[in-house]
């Protein structure tokens, strides 16, 4: 099957371009040369031909045409080497954006930097702190993770002019530490109205979401554990009855087959055992019918105007989302203002301001925990009607005791949706002002100041009788994050004949401060009243600061000769507050070059129109997190007290080093009707700042060190073509393909030959670093096999258990590809894109539990066997060391429970190869004579879709799976994932 997937994806990657005759090419209008202007580091605009590294740009139409709650997902599959992964945890869809694979052993240190109009966005797990709880927390008495959104959610897609993706360290060297993993340079729109006239535009869309894919549930057998009555027949009884003992308290589905029998069952009218035997039947929609068709409504109104001296743009957007899970969703308001004014021929002022408010009364929780809807879906039995839960509260016990008739550990799904509320009110203000002064014809000075101010209020409500909070719970969190960026840039430009010089020197100061106040009511005096004054026990945490400052100086020298040969040299020095005085100053350079070989060789532009060679090298220094240099006490849950740190600090900490080497070429054929780009790169990261286990006798659990070296190598290819073009018809297509391989070259000497466990999830899946291995390697217990690969069973008839964990697979794909198409016929446009990946593995906690309980169709094997027993296929080790076939029968529940046990990572881990129809759109633009008659400039109507079709052998909701573990999005592990959505919608765009 992998070979089939590979063949299909290779077709996707190459685009299956039809042959275009040479005569058609010669007769066509010449395509634009590769002279595009792109936004690079520090917001400096450069000609693409001069760059010695890859900088891909995604235009505004991508974000306007395929609307998403998180706009970044619109780029999935459209840029080689770019991976956007969400946690599958609800409507806000916080994204984990990586470029060219993983480089750090710390999962949260692999994010790309987000830059908006030249100002870095202080995004990431630290700013978007989670609830402080792991994904696996069933029965722990604690809470569970919630996707509360990140900084990307605050950016309005209607305001985006373009996004330039700077992939390597060379491309982003001038941004320093945070850009070591590449950067996304977002440029927002400014006033560009036609002929000095004011332009008003309205962009409105409505979309609907439904569940894309379901697990393969079984509805042939009901609740039970293979209990037999006096007659020796399998039976069911809710509570003890004349038929036998109670079998209705189990979460397993190893009960009788549905064959029109009658048993004593649960009666919702009496909220107990039925007076008479009832028909034994399945309720096939008892999970799916809980989920609704979600909806999103968005309206954007923008006004813009420009003349010779002034331009402005104002934008107002309101979005309302009602997600697929009942009583969940959010409202989002965006206000943006852009003003640019020439005070004189030498001085220009630019100002951009934006305000975002995201508000929700309830966002869904995720993870394997009694309070998550994922937990309920796992434990729901085939013979249980979902409607039995709908009243929520027992008669006469409103707000005090819920209806959960089968187990006190399984919370009522409607209680989860309507009473366990996770609210958020997030206000984010960002703004920047810049002054560009032309001192002389050759010398200019740019002063820029940016601010980001986040104020967020979170509330958590847990009612009486919930599994983890019997007397209720209420929490308020107040988060404040502020970042200030100030920089200046002095630029000198000159030309001597064919030699062109462009040089800049600058300096910047970045300061970030973060603080969170946390108040918790442990238990409520009065049921249903959520306030801190109603607390039985009030816990208040004294806020702990988390501040950081980085001062920088940098320079850029660009030389070109005859607009054919180009060389760039950059240098940057940072002084970071997170490093000790002796090491806080660190310097890093970069060099890049390109040559337009087609012009040097004077090639025939009708065949090979353009040929560019490029290469670059860069070194980037990376500082650590705040407060890793000394011992700091933390506020405890008890007022007036603190806790000792469990991590031994490192006062001699050094910065990490990231070395990047990149080379490639860009080709244009047939007057650039066909363009091809090829890139090879290698990235080495060393002196990584790691937290490793400490000796027990030291009194600490962990200690901070420098150590380890990671190498990344990869290949990227892109291809775009204008396949056909005439007066009425145009077909453009593009494709990309990327491969990344990383290898762990060294580990800290403290580990010797032992692996370093970088992280673990659920206590069963370990991300272990081993010399020669790769980041993303999944380790866990596997099936024990003999030399022939046969599964070894014990004398008890169950699979034998190995003594040690082993590598099961890797969380990241072998390679990824995307294919986009755009057809235009007169006023109609049809566009669609596919993308997919080959390889990658993911462990599924949900698959383990549903298999253990007999909820999935693959557990039907052996159900008709005598006495409900099964013999596992494999061998048994005999006393003389030989193997014989296993013949020991065991109960079905014992077999499936052990074969798919939680710790058996092998049997619950699956290939995540997939192909998706990522988006599709058909639109109609009204003819000019119609729009002019109406006094309008443009009217476009469109139908669009997202995730319309998917092929995969991954058995759960979505192969692009990741777990939200506290605030960390962890690929390769599924624990309580929520369903992903298929989206269809309608869009109207009017300009006048």
TrEMBL record:
It is a multi-pass membrane protein. It comes from Planobacterium oryzisoli. InterPro entries: Beta-barrel_TonB_sf, Plug_dom, Plug_dom_sf, TonB-dep_OMP_SusC/RagA, TonB-dep_OMP_SusC/RagA_CS, TonB-dep_rcpt-like. Belongs to the TonB-dependent receptor family. This is SusC/RagA family TonB-linked outer membrane protein. The keyword Transmembrane applies. GO terms for cellular component: cell outer membrane. NCBIfam families: OMP_RagA_SusC (TIGR04056), SusC_RagA_signa (TIGR04057).
């Amino acid at each position: 099957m992998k070979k089939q997937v590979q063949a299909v994806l290779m077709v996707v990657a190459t685009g299956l371009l039809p042959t275009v005759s040479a005569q058609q090419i010669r007769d066509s209008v010449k395509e634009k040369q590769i002279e595009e202007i792109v936004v690079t580091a520090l917001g400096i605009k450069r000609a693409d031909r001069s760059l010695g590294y890859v900088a891909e740009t995604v235009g505004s139409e991508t974000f306007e045409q395929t609307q998403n709650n998180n706009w970044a997902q619109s780029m999935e599959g459209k840029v080689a080497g770019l991976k956007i992964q969400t946690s599958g945890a609800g409507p806000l869809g916080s994204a984990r954006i990586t470029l060219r694979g993983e480089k750090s052993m710390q999962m949260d240190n692999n994010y790309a930097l987000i830059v908006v109009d030249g100002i870095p966005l202080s995004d990431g797990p630290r700013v978007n702190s989670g609830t402080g709880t792991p994904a696996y927390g069933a029965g722990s008495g604690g809470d569970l993770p919630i996707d509360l959104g990140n900084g990307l959610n605050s950016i309005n897609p209607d305001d985006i002019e373009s996004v330039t993706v700077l992939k390597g360290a060379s491309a982003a060297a001038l941004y320093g530490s945070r850009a070591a993993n590449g950067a996304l340079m977002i440029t927002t729109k400014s006033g560009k109205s036609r002929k000095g006239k004011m332009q008003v535009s309205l962009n409105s869309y409505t979309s609907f979401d439904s569940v894309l894919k379901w697990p393969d549930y079984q509805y042939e057998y009901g609740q039970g554990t293979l209990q037999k009555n006096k007659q020796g027949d399998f039976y069911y009884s809710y509570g003890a009855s004349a038929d036998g003992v109670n079998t209705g308290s189990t979460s397993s589905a190893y009960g009788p087959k549905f064959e029109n029998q009658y048993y004593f069952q649960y009666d919702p009218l009496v909220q107990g055992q039925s007076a008479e035997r009832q028909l034994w039947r399945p309720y096939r929609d008892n999970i799916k019918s809980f989920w609704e068709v979600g909806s999103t409504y968005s309206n954007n109104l923008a006004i813009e105007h420009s003349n010779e001296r002034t331009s402005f743009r104002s934008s107002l957007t309101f979005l309302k989302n009602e997600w697929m899970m009942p009583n969940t969703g959010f409202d989002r308001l965006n206000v943006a203002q852009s003003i640019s004014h020439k005070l004189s021929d030498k001085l220009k002022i630019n100002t951009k301001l934006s305000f975002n408010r995201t508000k929700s009364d309830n966002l869904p929780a995720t993870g394997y925990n009694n309070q998550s809807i994922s937990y309920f879906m796992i434990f729901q039995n085939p013979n249980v009607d979902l409607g039995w839960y709908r009243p929520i509260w027992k008669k006469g016990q409103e707000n005090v005791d819920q209806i959960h008739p089968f187990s006190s550990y399984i919370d009522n799904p409607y209680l989860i949706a309507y009473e366990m509320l996770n609210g958020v009110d997030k206000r984010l203000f960002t703004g920047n002002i810049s002054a560009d002064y032309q001192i002389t014809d050759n010398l200019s000075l740019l002063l820029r100041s940016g601010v980001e101010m986040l104020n967020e209020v979170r509330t958590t409500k847990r009612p009486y009788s919930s599994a983890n909070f019997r007397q209720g719970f209420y929490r308020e969190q107040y988060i404040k994050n502020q970042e200030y960026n100030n920089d200046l840039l002095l630029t000198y430009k000159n030309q001597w004949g064919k030699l062109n010089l462009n040089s800049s020197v600058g300096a910047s100061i970045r300061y970030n401060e973060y603080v969170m106040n946390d108040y918790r009511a442990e238990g409520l005096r009065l049921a249903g009243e959520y306030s801190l004054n109603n607390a039985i026990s009030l816990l208040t945490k004294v806020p702990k600061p988390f501040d950081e400052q980085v001062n920088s100086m940098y320079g850029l020298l660009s030389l070109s000769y005859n607009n054919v040969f180009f060389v760039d040299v950059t240098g940057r020095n940072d002084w970071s507050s997170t490093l000790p005085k002796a090491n806080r100053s660190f310097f890093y350079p970069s060099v890049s070059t390109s040559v337009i070989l087609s012009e040097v060789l004077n090639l025939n532009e009708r065949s090979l129109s353009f040929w560019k060679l490029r290469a670059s090298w860069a070194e980037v220094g990376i500082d650590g997190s705040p407060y890793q240099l000394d011992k700091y006490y933390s506020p405890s849950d008890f007022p007036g007290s603190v806790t000792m740190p469990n991590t031994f600090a490192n006062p001699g900490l050094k910065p990490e080093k990231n070395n990047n080497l990149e080379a490639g070429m860009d080709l244009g054929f047939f007057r650039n009707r066909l363009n091809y780009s090829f890139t090879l790169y290698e990235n080495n990261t060393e002196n990584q700042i790691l937290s490793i286990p400490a000796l027990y006798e030291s009194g600490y659990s962990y200690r901070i060190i420098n150590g380890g070296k990671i190498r990344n190598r990869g290949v990227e290819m892109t291809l775009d073509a204008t396949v056909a073009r005439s007066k009425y018809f145009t077909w453009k297509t593009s494709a990309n393909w990327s491969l990344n391989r990383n290898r762990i070259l060294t580990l800290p000497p403290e580990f010797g030959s032992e692996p370093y466990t970088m992280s673990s999830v659920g206590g069963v899946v370990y991300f272990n670093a081993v010399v020669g291995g790769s980041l993303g390697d999944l380790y866990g217990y596997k099936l024990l096999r003999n030399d022939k690969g046969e599964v070894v069973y014990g004398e008890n008839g169950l699979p034998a258990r190995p003594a040690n964990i082993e590598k099961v697979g890797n969380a990241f794909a072998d390679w990824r590809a995307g294919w986009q198409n755009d057809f235009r016929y007169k006023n109609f446009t049809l566009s669609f894109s596919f993308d997919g990946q080959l390889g990658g593995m993911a462990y599924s906690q949900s698959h383990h539990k549903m298999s253990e309980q007999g909820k999935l169709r693959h557990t039907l094997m052996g159900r008709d066997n005598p006495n409900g027993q099964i013999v596992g296929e494999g061998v048994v080790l005999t006393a003389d060391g030989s193997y014989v076939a296993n013949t020991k029968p065991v109960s079905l529940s014992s077999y499936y429970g052990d074969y798919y046990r939680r710790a058996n990572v092998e049997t619950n881990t699956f290939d995540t190869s997939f192909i998706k129809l990522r988006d599709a759109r058909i639109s109609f633009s009204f003819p000019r004579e119609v729009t002019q008659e109406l006094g309008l400039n443009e009217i476009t109507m469109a139908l669009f879709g997202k995730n319309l079709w998917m092929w995969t052998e991954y058995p759960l909701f979505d192969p692009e799976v990741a777990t939200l573990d506290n605030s960390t999005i962890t690929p390769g592990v599924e624990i309580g994932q929520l369903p992903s959505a298929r989206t269809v919608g309608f869009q109207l765009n009017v300009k006048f």
